[in-house]
Amino acid sequence: MKIKLVRSNLQSSQIFEPLKLIGKSVQLAAITEQVLAGNTITSISVSAIGYDMKSGDRININDQLLTLSADASAGATSLSVNSVFLDYTLGLYDSIDLDKNNLFVQYQRKTEGQVAGFDIDADGIAKGGVEITGWLDSDTMTGATSNNVPTAESVKSYVDSQINKPNFSSLTCSGTSLSSATDGDASAVVCKYDTETTISDVNTIIIYGAGGVAGATGGEYSFSVTPVESLIKTAFEFTWNVGFNTSVVNNRILMGVKLQQGSVSGGAVVWADVDPTISFAYNRGAGAIRQASTSNGMLVIIEAGQPIQYFRLLFWKVAASNASMKGITEINATNFRIKQIN
Fold this sequence. Notes:
Layout: E1 3-6, E2 15-18, E3 25-30, E4 40-45, E5 58-61, E6 64-67, E7 78-85, E8 95-99, H1 100-109, E9 114-115, E10 118-121, E11 124-127, E12 130-132, E13 134-136, E14 148-150, H2 152-162, E15 168-172, E16 189-190, E17 195-199, E18 205-207, E19 223-225, E20 233-246, E21 253-265, E22 268-273, E23 279-283, E24 292-303, E25 310-320, E26 327-329, E27 335-340
Parallel strand pairs: 13-14
Antiparallel strand pairs: 1-2, 3-8, 4-7, 5-6, 9-10, 10-11, 11-12, 15-17, 15-27, 16-25, 18-19, 19-25, 20-24, 20-26, 20-27, 21-22, 21-23, 21-25
């Protein structure tokens, strides 16, 4: 270790101290008291400082490094410091400097202090009780925490993915459907929706036509709707219209229509009525004028994690003035509209 001889107030005595660093500091002020090595201090008296100083700022007095424990305004004559045991004596009028070694490190790597009001440490910046330690580059926000900031591109991609694009379809029938001659909904038949005539660019609605649901029986002319994965519940609006003619002229007939919902169990689609969706169409069958129609609608909720939900529309003869009479759907008066609404 390099040492040097320094003055002492004691006659005929010599005190040796480690050699001080020369030319590595920036002077701020001077101390106005003497504090001997071996003491522990928490504050020092100084000449008026020339700059505002902040808690955490580091100063150098006679090679003794100190850290401020409180802010100090320009002109202050006392500085509060973190409690420290003095390795060196602080002499009267010793200069208060900024250590150039620390200045170099902070200029190059910035691990302490503040930037634009943000507190800096070794791994991040903090303000208002929130510390940011990195960027997040994920279009799905995977890995998001309270300590990272997503890139603008990631935010845009994520927001775009959350905006539900129009999802709709209009179903029609390519042919007619004929009811049973037997009265009652136990003899109901499926309305043969097998064609999508108007669909959105994003379309999660599937129609199964005459072939039905793959791997299951009972799914002919049904359709399914797919929920949005990011939503707990996805809502769909169903509306429909069914137009009827009669198989026998000059006879009266009352037709019923209802919606059913089902899911696959044991290799078959198991169906249940959706209530309240029943509606009726009364046809007097007077000569060539024997058309009638009925319309209805329903809001349907599909929850995340549910098995695939299938839907179909049934119609049946409620009663007629002629026992053999049947109802026949009108192609141009029969349609089903599906629209996702959230």
